[in-house]
Fold:
Amino acid sequence: MSGNLLGRLSDRFRLPAFPGWRFVLLGCVIYTVGGGVFYQALPIFFLPLKHDFGVSSATISLLYAAARLEGGFEGPLVGYLISRFGPRAVILVGVVMSGGGLFLLTLAPDFWSFFFVYICVVSLGYNAGFYHPISTLVNNWFIRNRGVAFAWISASGAAGGVLLAPILATLIHRYGWRTGAVAAGGIVLLVSLPAAWPLRATPESMGLCPDGGAGAAPRADRGAEPHAGEPEFSVREALRTRAFWQLLASISMRLFVTVALTTHIVPILVWGGMTEQWAAYMVSLYSFVYILSTLGLGWIADRWRKSLVCAVGLLPMTLAMVGLVFSQATPWLYFLAVGLSIAMGTASLNWALIGDLFGRQSYPTIRGVMGVGYGVMTFLSPIYAGWVFDLTGSYTPVLITFIAIALATALGFAGLSAPPPLRRGSPST
Structure:
């Protein structure tokens, strides 16, 4: 049924015939609700949870930070499961866990019960079942158009913020965060499960090549295969390259800043003088600009050097933070939301760079290994921001730290280059 509906949509809107674009569309549907609920709209829950449970900003930050840390450390296992069972199976399990877990959250009587359910059920399902397997599928189906395909997936998460943030903000404001959690869980399950069912892991499984064209006879168990001119590194080979560690450091520093700012965006805007409800609606502005920047940067990155696009994309956010250090005037608050959305628009290019530098076969595992490194950074940064604010009553020291890290990150991306081609006497293992 989902396949027939997708076919009718494809005919109506004249989607390219290559099935990879249809799977990108399905991935967008899944990530619209997943990214919208669990990432873009997540800051809306920050202050209501803080007030309801009577805990500090640092404690609430610990919740989000632990979720990111868990995502990092489960990365290698998730990468193995994707390689072993395919993206679709991992997505289905993750959707059931994360969507069902949102219902369980409403039963939590105190913060630590909430923390346990969120980390052990909701976060575990989201980290395993959404962007990681979807990005693996995109990396398998595309080489030449990888930047644009990744951009559409990332933009769909922002679209989820535009669509869902106002709805959830209104529900939470009128009826409380528990009602918002129930609504979010229902949306995740009802939309994502049917969309995941038709997905196919690789073009080789359908007798096709990446980006289109006929390949060998289809075989259900065929994984991604090397193609002429495309690098193919095993995990061990990637770990021996300078590019791996430089890319990991750059992604980790970028996430250190953007995860903390995304988690604290509503509290920062309130600190700057906005009302809590208006700051929650500002998430929609952030998400809307995120869509535009992600699609625009993805298009540019397929025609320019991706690493340089990643570097330049961090500069508006950095400038906005510099402005807020000296003045909390309203224009700087808007500019922070816009600058952060542009910086987040480079995120899809970070993941596309892994495929560009190291190929398709080991992509899920290489990305999973990287997750251990950047997971630690994303664990520390929201806690740091919350702790400093609790201690000083100001986000200024946090912004000063983040300015320095953002500039170092831009330099790291700008100086990134591809590892030298491998010379093998026999196939890699």
